[in-house]
């Protein structure tokens, strides 16, 4: 099988590829080992990642090196950590060993002289206000296999939606772990600052190996290159006025007894955008009109832009393979979820669900019945086992195709959790608290099946149940435990198994066991007093007011235990455990449900990230491999190769069952001519792309078959 000589003479890179049926495997980040060496006792505690793509059984292990000296006598197969007390000097590395064959060394360890990494940050200047570091997100912004951190700077005059007044702009920075600032983005005066306005996603949406930064923008937003989006002079903030309201919070009462909401500072009109920013430079890659629009404000449930300015956002694998971004608007009343794909430098709509639209969900209930069900947080995962993600939107769930899957009618709540909490039940479970038991039959908290919405059990009560959490806390009790402002500490069968923890906030895997500890403020507390905790003092502080959350918790580096990020004056500090463990789990970031919940952890009322697999007392180890792959690999784990030409076709590799093609050039901003030929040498498709990957079916509309892909990187210079 050969190309004609006229074709091979100009080939820059050729890939044989075939298009088959869609794969159920998800594309995930290709990370490095995340090796850290933390000063501990008389030596250093080493910790590193087991990938989800690694063999999970004892045929696979690691050797630990200091310089050229191997430290371990026996292959390390029961954990991915090691305590070295030998002294001396030399950079630490680890080498994977498969079937007795040693692989390449990892990157050198990140050495820490204390149990945290200090990342220097640059506080923005404030005109009439001050800024503090708030929510954070993580992603590999530069494609080197190490996470970078994105921080949202919060002005002191930020306001809840219920209150009027101008706020300073929300600002975002991106930092490498060594403190290098990559960019700064200023959302401008036409995006109010507060917990409910800006929900941001950091994720590799286009498959080029680098995470993008995505959020809602407006006239006057300044990207990381200093370019202004929209009209720089536009000011859409209301100047004065008021409207009648029935709401208590934020209202005032006139002399005649009428309750009103002031409008000053609110965004009542004006263009709205969704922008994808380049993760490395902060440049605005593409901007489109936000959907659905704000107007008419009253369609969202009030006349003063409280409910219309309530946003959520998430990342979900709606086709089972590639991630989509899903910005959302409204949850007290009208509810809209907008799924978009970022491919080849363009944002396109996959679907839009709007509870105000005609039609009904798959449960037979009208779309209107899905209104008023959302929480101040969001969860994503494959709840029905079809290989594609659904979006758990509080008391309702939207299927991967944008149709309602079910609505419970239990209504809004402040806290929402989803995980495999009961290993003896198939699938995932949802734990949610509810704000208005008077409107849902007296249910203040519910434990339900994520697939069907069936309430397994519930707690009664009256009034707003404003806090709820769940985690594997109790040793000897299989399954997770749930607690809230009502009832006790429940197991999955609604049996009281202990006293309620002192906080109902966050939970974190911190010490060596499979149980989580509770986290509140700047403290980590193992339930029952055993295990290893953490207590951090000044200058570190929690954020988000009474919610008292960290900036972020996630498996950022080291083994599967989680790190926690606090704002500490001129630093972000990433605290990590030095507790040894004999439990070997792959990095939590290769569990898709956990990774997506990290992406949406910053949303509104932050909730701790939770996995789609059961982790807790009675967990079976070793784990089964997650059904994931990297861009540029095939299902069997082979590497997709590209060759600079002219190269004999016999050296190329036929790729079976993989529709994603990774192009042979990785120049940021470089446009490339991509031509797809049949095996007979006939041109089937030609396109200019900026991304470093193409999906032959979705991007080019190719039908099933075997093709040759030609790439010419020299035909185009950098645009913009």
Any overview of this molecule?
The protein has 720 residues and is mostly beta strands. 2% of the residues lie in helices and 33% in strands. The protein has a 5-stranded mixed sheet, with no helix packed on it. A hairpin with a 6-residue loop joins strand 21 and strand 22. It is globular and about 85 Å long. It starts with a helix and ends in an 8-residue tail after the last strand. The N terminus and C terminus are likely disordered.
Features:
single chain, 720 residues, mainly beta, five-stranded mixed sheet, 2% helix
Strand order of the largest sheet: 46-1-51-48-49
| SS-based class | mainly beta
**Largest β-sheet summary:** 5 strands, mixed
Oligomeric form of this entry?
A: single chain
- Tell the overall outline: globular
Strand content: 25-35%
Low-confidence stretches: 1-23, 633-659, 714-720
Task: Give me the count of strands.
Answer: 51
Please outline what is shown here.
By secondary structure, the protein is mainly β. Strands 46-1-51-48-49 form a five-stranded mixed β-sheet, with no helix packed on it.
Secondary structure: elements and pairs:
Blueprint: H1 5-8, E1 14-19, E2 26-27, E3 36-40, E4 43-47, E5 60-66, E6 69-70, E7 81-84, E8 92-98, E9 101-102, E10 110-112, E11 116-120, E12 131-139, E13 148-155, E14 171-175, E15 181-186, E16 201-203, E17 212-218, E18 242-244, E19 252-253, E20 259-262, E21 272-277, E22 284-289, E23 311-316, E24 324-329, E25 336-343, E26 346-354, E27 379-381, E28 390-393, E29 396-398, E30 404-407, E31 416-419, E32 429-433, E33 443-449, E34 455-460, E35 468-471, E36 481-484, E37 506-508, E38 517-520, E39 523-525, E40 534-535, E41 540-541, E42 552-554, E43 563-568, E44 571-575, H2 592-599, E45 628-629, E46 654-655, E47 660-662, E48 672-678, E49 683-689, E50 693-695, E51 705-712
Parallel strand pairs: 1-46, 2-45, 3-10
Antiparallel strand pairs: 1-51, 3-4, 4-7, 5-6, 5-8, 8-9, 11-44, 12-13, 13-14, 14-15, 16-17, 17-21, 18-20, 19-20, 21-22, 23-24, 24-25, 25-26, 27-28, 28-29, 29-30, 31-32, 32-33, 33-34, 35-36, 37-38, 38-39, 39-40, 41-43, 42-43, 43-44, 47-50, 48-49, 48-51
